[in-house]
Structure prediction request, 276 residues.
Amino acid sequence: MSEPEQSTSNSSVIKNSITPSTSQQVPLKILAIGSAYEDTILYVDKFPPEDGKQRAQRVEKRRGGNSDFEARNIKTTTCIFRPSATHAPVAYIIHADNTGRNAAEEAKMIEYIDTKDWRDKAIISVEFEKPFRRGLEVLIDKADVLFFSKVFAEGKGYDHADEFLQIMSPYCKETALLFCTWGSAGAMCFHNPTKKFFSAPALAISSVVDSVGAGDTFNAGAIYGLSQGMPPESCLKFSCELAGRKCAQNGFDGVVEKMKLAAMKKEENAANKQMI
Prediction:
């Protein structure tokens, strides 16, 4: 295996803001596959021991899952609705201050899409989050974009994102783009066609307020960035910043607006420097 080149996301390729203005944005054509849940989040001082009892400091309910779309103006016409159901799926999440998919069926879906003449116009992304979920390996060579979590990499015996991505790259498509998030250490990206690494630090925030959904936020940022034609290093930096801003607040509302405001400030600062 040839030695990959490494770059950082503060490369000179990135100029001013990487957040597209409204006039520059490309219309989104993204199909998300998942379920809509009612998330019940229990906030505690520390994660309770097995079979232990602990009082939650507070409880919060949100619409969650991988398909919390309607409130954000995303069409749900392709979704399956079950009007006879009396209860929505519920997920309980324990949020500690100190702290399944059917892969075979998904593989069949991707293989079906691969037979279509419009396949080269579609980009398929797959998230690999839980290392011990059986059968996920069948999806590795089928995805165009792969999102790996730190937990997944560590579960496979790796302590560094770059080492993990380099080992995984031969098992992926030659055209694949691999991401791996690493918590407070930021994230890395491996561009298989060029064998180049890109890294980005986590956004510096005063404190982590709510990390529930941070990984999903990173993935959403990367999908959005790629849909807008961002190069890998810019896309990585954008996703890290988006996930960081989400961690600095409760929930998701207002994160996009904060990104736009930050982008405007960067553009103003750059313009002021040019004037000076």
Observations:
- DSSP finds six helices and nine strands in the chain.
- The CA atoms of residues 9 and 200 lie 5 Å apart.
- The two ends are 48 Å apart (CA to CA).
